[in-house]
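Explain my protein.
***
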Amino acid sequence: MPAAPSPPELVIPASPGNQEILSGGQIESIRAWWGRTLTSPVRVQLFVDGPGCQACEVTARVVQQLQRASPRLTVSVALARGAHGEPPRLDMLPETRVHTRTGNTIRFFGTQVGVEVTSLVQTVADASLDRPPLPPDVLGSARALPAGSWVRVFVGPACTHCPGAVRAAVALALATNALSVDIVAAPEFPELARRFRVGGVPTTVVNGRAYFEDPRRPADLLEALRAAPPA
């Protein structure tokens, strides 16, 4: 069976000035791109802190703008302290969750600004796919990953290579719910970045032991997951 084709890469035009939210031109680009690539409904949840969390406010405004870019996207925004029934624990805010059609959840930690919005927009499109955009051999091996496997991709708002690293991880997560994928804004969580020896972005951590400092193909990431299984 041939691999499902990957949606084309998205390029969001730069915002004029120092805007904190998406410009009209950016939304129009996303609307047009999602019109070609968003194939089924996708749900996004944003968990925020209380008043005074600027990162939460900015991200809420961004995801609400994104909702207006496609009728297939549903967005909800909730206070983390009122979401006791939402595993896992909500202690890194803002947290944006993209629920995939295949049943997995991709989590983004930190403000969704700059190039990080590109990763979020591409993940929404890929989450709508009914099967992963992987060749058959990679797909079969990904589905055999052991439960508890995880990947954490550290990114930054001006990193043009980060969307490629995120997309490689998301492609594997579409193949199996055994793999958890977290996307972390490194500048906003410096202690976590230091813990995993992040010296630049993108840095991809595989099961806490393998590190990549540049974008990798899903096949390369899969090889690392198989070589360093969860402890």
